[in-house]
Task: structure prediction
Amino acid sequence: ETAVFQTPNYHVTQVGNEVSFNCKQTLGHDTMYWYKQDSKKLLKIMFSYNNKQLIVNETVPRRFSPQSSDKAHLNLRIKSVEPEDSAVYLCASRPTGGTSAETLYFGSGTRLTVL
Amino acid sequence: SQLAEENSWALSVHEGESVTVNCSYKTSITALQWYRQKSGKGPAQLILIRSNEREKRNGRLRATLDTSSQSSSLSITATRCEDTAVYFCATSSGGNYKPTFGKGTSLVVHP
Result:
């Protein structure tokens, strides 16, 4: 049952444009993540937020910026997209405590194609 | 660099057969998770096994963990076509929690 919702499902754009992806989780979790999955299915963490605070910021280009209005929402903006940004962007959340504190709950992803 | 890695890119079996996916990792861990990703969906956790555990089961799934060789395996018995997916192992090592995923093993189960 889906509890992490991502929009849009797909987005096609031109090099140099700005794009924004949205993510909302209804699980009441405190921590949310953005992962990038390339064409070979490799998953790389980009950012992590805990209760609206940035706690993990991997080495990603500065054109990527996460935005969190509350702990249930974590959006991703890309200014001036590049061809190498073509990928699936996956949002995830996890609970802070309890027996399943390490479990990530993923959305279905946003597939970005940069022409 | 990848801290966790599955040992096979792709596996193919027929329904009803058993299959094992292996994973190796390079750092000390607190837990290892196995995830499955079906086409068009995000990964979903199958099993979490902690560093002080050696085996964990979930229905037809069995995960093992060997911290001395830094390896884990996920076995699926009586495979079904719906088991067709990419299987990932993911490691975590406490502190600033950021699970690291392996490259994934694509499993195809043929009817």
